[in-house]
Amino acid sequence: MLPGRTFTPGEVVRILGRRSWLIVLPFAVGLSAVPVLARLVPEQYRSETMILVIPQRVPDMYVKSTVTAKVEDRLPSISNQILSRSRLERTINDFNLYAGQRANGIMEDIVQRMRADISVQLEGQESFRVSYVSSDPQMAQKVAARLASLYIEENLRDRENLAEETNLFLESQLNDAKDRLIEHEKKLEVYRRRYAGELPSQLDSNLQAIRNAQMQLMSVSESINRARERRLLIERQLVDLDTVPVVASQPAPPPPAPDPSAPPTTARQLEIMQTQLELQRLRYTADHPDVRNLERTIRDLQARLKLEDAARRPPEPAKQEPPSSAELARQKRRRDLQAELDIIDHQLAAGQSEEGRLKQAMAAYQTKVEVVPTRESELVELTRDYSTLQVAYANLLTKREESKIAANLERRQIGEQFRILDPAALPERPYNQQKRITTMASGAVAGLLLGLLLVGFLEYRDNSLRR
Question: pTM for this structure?
């Protein structure tokens, strides 16, 4: 190239005209390579189907589904299962795909190529497209339809398996919680049996038993005091009876009139005690100390009355001189007082025994009341985990029942489903037609550019002076 040389547009046109053969020749070579390039880019047909995601038909407020993941989160997992080697090999064998490649290549490469020919595109949250590319339009349609059916079946199977696994998991957790709950219940049962009567829940009953025992003790004490006063009175009457002399020479006085201040006979005492017993039974229960004391007194009076009846029988005639009537009256009076004294002694013994029993019962109940705080702390320690297990068991039971309903929902296929909205259609023209045209045109353009580059190079290297 000459120094200082410049190219004007007219000169450029003259150069192109002079070296036109260098432009036409590469351009012609590029055009002749178009059929070869067309074979390198064969016609490809793509068939696609749109799958619609139908939500659960039963409202969530009635049945909660166990599958809570969104379709955009589950779709990659479903795609991985469908695009697995075992699934794709089955599809390749069923439709005899890639026959030429299978004759010369290995199955792993063929499976990889089929994965590249399959495309899954998510469109929003309610649908997605599945497409397949093949050199045969009918085969593209068939494989796309097969892939759509596989997505529908895999979604149903995946949801059903997830519901069943959730149900089995909750069932196992529920059984474990039940076993632990039964174990704690047995511990509580052993504890309650061991410390029966000392539990915090029995505190009120123990206090009430102490109050009842105190009232009974007061009643028994009053009965004992009355019996002791009566015994002192009878002992004084016996002493007075022994100090009064009896005059034998005086004639027997007539039978005295009944003295109101004199003690009643045994029969009269029995009638009085029976009347008092009937009155006491109207006021108290059969276990009351006064009622039991009166019953024992009545039994003693009945035994004493039998003895007096036996004593009143006419004795065998004796040769001794019969005692006077005053002596007989005093002896009878002594016997009556002695019999009444025996009855009072029985009453005192029974009352003292009852008093001792009540005091022992009060002491036992008081001991139970005093250990209630200790038992309460121990019971709180035992029931703390038990309450937690009860709540956990109730929650698991509720969730297990909800899981069963959700599993039935999936089995009946009324949960979330995939449904084909646009079935796979037969493609009428190659989807890569534009790419083929671009590839074929690129040969001619490459030849033209190559010619221009040659012209430019030669002119750059040309140092001849032409004018």
Answer: 0.50
